[in-house]
Amino acid sequence: MESSCSSAGGHPTDRRLSRKDMHKLPFIHIPISSLADDVSSESESAEDHDYNTDFTTPPTSDSSPEDCQGEEVEDFRDREYPQLKGKVYLDHGGTTLYAKSLVEEFSADLIANLYGNPHSASTPSALAGHRVDAIRERALRFFNADPEHFDLVFVANATAAIKLVIDCFKDHAASSNTPVWYGYHRDAHTSLVGVRESTKMHRCFTSDEEVDIWINSGGLGGPRARQLGLFAYPGQSNMTGRRLPLSWPGRIRKGFHKAATYTLLDAAALASTAQIDLSDAATAPDFVALSFYKIFGFPNIGALIVRKESAHVLKDRKFFGGGTVEMVISINDTWHAKKDTSIHDRLEDGTLPFHSIFALDHAMN
Q: Starting from the edge strand earliest in sequence, which strands make up the sheet with 228-234, in order?
C-alpha cells in the first residue's frame, strides 16, 4: 500500500493564503512564466509531425498559467478544484488533485477526434501512434531529459517501473552468467525493498553517511568483480518527506570500476513537490521511476525513464508480448524477432493506455 505520510501537502486547504505567505509552503517554487515558455516551445516542436488534431496547440481556456499568475489561491482553487469545497485534503503525497479544466479538455479531445489502437493499420490508429510519440518526447522534456540521451517507457505506475527494471536485470544476469547484487536505502518505499527478494545478495544502507562511505570507498561492501550491481533509493522519503542527495548516481558512475553498478531513483514522491531535472545525462540516474498521477492527479499512468547509455542491461528480457515483437513462430520452431527500433518498443507490452497518454498531454498543458 502506498504510504501517504509525506509532510508535503500537510496544510489545511481551507486556510486563505496571501502571496507573501506562499514562500512558507514546503514546495519548490517554479515560476509560472517559465512553465508558459515551456508550453509554447513544446507546441512549436509538435508542428514538425505530419498530423494534427484540435488539441495540438496550447489550451485557450480561462485557466491558462498567465491568468493564474496574479490570482489568489482561493480563487483558482474554487474554479479548478470544486471537489475541495467544504473539505480538507491531506493526501497530496498519495496523489494530488486533478484540475477541472484538465478533465474538461480531455473529454472534449476524445469527443472531437477519432483515435484507434496504435498497433492497428488505419488512419485513426496512425493518428494515435503519432500523438503518443509526440507526448512521449514532451514528457521527457518536462523532466529536462534530452531524447537523444533518454527514452521513456510508459508503465502503470512507479512500482511497475521498478519491477520492470529488476526483471530485466535478472534476465540480463542469467544470459551473461553474472550474479546480481542489490543495495537500497532504509528510506526506500516498499516497492524498492521488495526487489531484494529477487536477489541472493542485497544490502540495506542505514543512513546517508553509510552510502557516502560506500561511494568514497569505490564500492567496498558492494558488488564484486564479475557481478552486476543495482543501487536504488527514493528521491524523497514517503515517511518523513526528507529529500535524499541526487548526486549519488553521478558519483557512483564516476567512482566505481570493479563492478558495473547502476542506479535506480524512485522519484514518485519527489516529482509531486519538485521539478525533476535530468538535463545532465552524465550525472543522472540510470533509471527513474515515477507516477504521473502524483504530479497531475490524472491520468493514472507512470513512466520509467531510461538513460540510453545504460539501456543494454534491459535488452535481454525473456518475456515478450503484444507489440514488442515483429514476428513469432510457434509451430515446428520457437523463434521470435524482437523490435529493436527503440528501448520503449522492446519494453511496452501489449497496447498502451493511449487514451490516458492523451490525458497526460492535457495535464502538462
A: 150-155, 302-307, 287-291, 261-266, 228-234, 180-185, 201-205
Using alpha carbons, list the distances in angstroms from residue 269 to 191, 239, 262, 303: 13, 10, 21, 13
3-state secondary structure 221-251: CCCCCCCEEEEEEECECCCCCCECCCCHHHH
- Distance from chain centroid for Cα 319: 22
DSSP letter for 99, please. Answer: P
Which amino acid is it at 133? Answer: D
**Cβ-contact 302, 155 below 8 angstroms:** yes
* pLDDT tens string 188-240: 999 999 999 999 999 999 999 999 999 999 999 999 998 999 999 999 998 89
Handedness of CA 152, 153, 158, 163 (dihedral sign): negative
**Burial annotation 49-67 (CB, 10 A radius, 16+ → b, else e):** eeeebebeeebeeebbbee
Residues sharing a CB contact under 8 Å with residue 253, sequence separation 6 or more, in sequence order: 263, 282, 283, 286
pLDDT of the residue at 174: 86
Contact 233, 244 (CB under 8 A): yes
Within 8 A by CB and 6+ apart from 284, the residues are: 145, 150, 249, 250, 278, 307
Q: Which residues contact 210 (CB under 8 A, 6 or more apart)?
A: none
What per-residue confidence (pLDDT) applies to 199? 92
Residues near 86 by beta carbon (within 8 Å), at least 6 away in sequence: none
* 19 closest CA partner among 89, 69, 81: 69
User: Model confidence over 107-159: pLDDT tens digits?
Assistant: 999 999 999 999 888 999 999 999 999 999 999 999 999 999 999 999 999 99
Measure the CA–CA gap between 205 and 351, rounded to whole angstroms: 38
Buried b (16+ CB within 10 A) or exposed e, 121-145: eeeebebbbbbbebbbbbbbbbbeb
Q: β-strands 261-266, 228-234: how paired?
A: parallel
- Roughly what angle, to the nearest 10 degrees, separates helices 32-46 and 123-142? 150
Helix or strand run (H / E) with residue 77: helix 73-80
- In angstroms, the CA 330 to CA 239 distance is 49
- Do you find a cis peptide bond into 353, omega within 30 degrees of 0? no
Q: What pTM, to 2 d.p., does this model score?
A: 0.78
